[in-house]
Design a protein that fits this description.
Number of helices: 15
Distance between the termini: 33 Å
Order of helices and strands: HHHHHHHHHHHHHHH
Helix content: over 70%
């Protein structure tokens, strides 16, 4: 069977459970859970299960940040963005006060400066070319998309290059993180965070109304947003910090590069305590990797439970090229921007950190550039 004819279903064929891939997803998840439990890490098992649930929720709800942002920018449709704000609001209810009041818990915070702006802008371009973001690439790859496997591969590569570039980008300057709870306390910080989300929602709705576009989130975005928000809270409680996606990619890439003979001992990023520990230890000790693995297998299980797994034809070469370029840009941009749409935007805003909104403001113009470039690769602007 050639890649161009990967078992495209015959006309009139009925879809059912793909028992093989469903079993593979469940067995792989069970093995990972058993390994971390045998190592005495019940929180790691919870992270795997949380990621598994996220994979199901994203795929079931077709919860796409990339498409939602594109539709807002091109048509003015606001429903997808509002669904994303539901996720942030629910997550903030736990993250802001708990991170401020409890030891061993922390928020997603980052400084404000050129590195953040450059990284977010670059990520915005990449997500529209790849047609997927941090979470979108993961759950669609897990759901059987060959195109997104290409994007994920190059995302990992770009993340490693980004790790090498980040120290130089930080040397450009900036200001220390601005966290609402530092100025207003845990509950005042939560109130300010929720107010900022409400303000953003009102602006988004106003833009949609002015453009005569739909502004009500669909049922999928409401239910999906609630489910994903609750799972984000669960991941936060299990891991001690908000859900992140792309640091795991960076660790995977660096580990593979190390096996191939690359030496990171003189790379500044990999001498920082967190990255150094992650590179030296098993990927099953990295919270981001655990949720990533869970999400991949959760999406695989959900996809296999609905129809034959990975049975669509490969897209044209230009589309695959866009996926590769987009993945590289997202990987590099995510490291400079302190995360992706999940780690930097959702996690940042839900932590009451100003950098989350700055990331979003810088990523949107990047998305506009990416949207304009999409036709060059045979992709629609809508």
């Amino acid at each position: 069977m050639t890649t161009a004819t990967m078992a495209a279903p015959k006309s009139g064929a009925t879809f059912g459970i793909d028992r093989l891939f469903l079993a593979l997803a469940l067995i792989a998840t069970a093995i990972l859970i058993a390994l971390v439990l045998l190592d005495g890490q019940p929180a790691s098992a919870a992270l795997l299960l949380g990621g598994f649930g996220l994979g199901i929720a994203f795929l079931k709800a077709e919860f796409s940040y990339t498409a939602s942002w594109r539709r807002f920018l091109t048509r003015g449709e606001a429903g997808g963005l509002l669904g994303g704000l539901i996720v942030i609001a629910i997550t903030a209810l736990a993250v802001v006060p708990v991170a401020a009041l409890k030891q061993n818990f922390g928020g997603a915070i980052a400084p404000l400066g050129p590195s953040l702006l450059i990284g977010a802008f670059t990520f915005g371009i990449g997500m529209q070319l790849a047609n997927g973001c941090g979470s979108g690439t993961l759950y669609t790859a897990g759901g059987g998309s060959g195109r997104m496997l290409i994007a994920l591969l190059f995302f990992v590569v770009g993340s490693v290059f980004g790790s090498l570039s980040l120290p130089s980008a930080l040397s450009l300057g900036g200001i220390d993180p601005i966290l609402a709870s530092d100025y207003l306390g845990p509950w005042g910080g939560l109130a300010a965070t929720l107010a900022s989300i409400a303000l953003a929602a009102s602006v988004i709705v106003a833009v949609a109304k002015r453009r005569g576009a739909s502004f009500m989130p669909s049922r999928n975005f409401v239910i999906g947003g609630i489910a994903i928000g609750l799972l984000c809270v669960a991941v936060f409680i299990a891991g001690g910090h908000p859900w992140s996606v792309t640091f795991g990619y960076t660790v995977w890439g660096a580990k593979i590069a190390s096996v191939l003979g690359f030496d990171f001992s003189h790379a500044a990023f990999w001498q920082w305590p967190g990255p150094k520990h992650a590179l030296a230890e098993s990927v099953l000790s990295d919270t981001s990797s655990l949720t990533d693995f869970g999400m991949l297998f959760g999406a695989m299980a959900e996809a296999a439970a609905a129809k034959p797994f990975a049975r669509t034809a490969w897209p044209p070469a230009k589309s695959l090229l866009a996926a590769g370029i987009g993945g590289l840009l997202m990987g590099w941009g995510a490291r400079l921007g302190f995360g992706c749409n999940i780690g930097a935007f959702v996690g940042g805003v839900a932590s009451g950190s100003l950098h989350g909104w700055v990331w979003f403001a810088a990523a949107l113009p990047g998305c506009l550039i990416g949207i304009r470039l999409r036709p060059l690769f045979g992709l629609s602007r809508d």
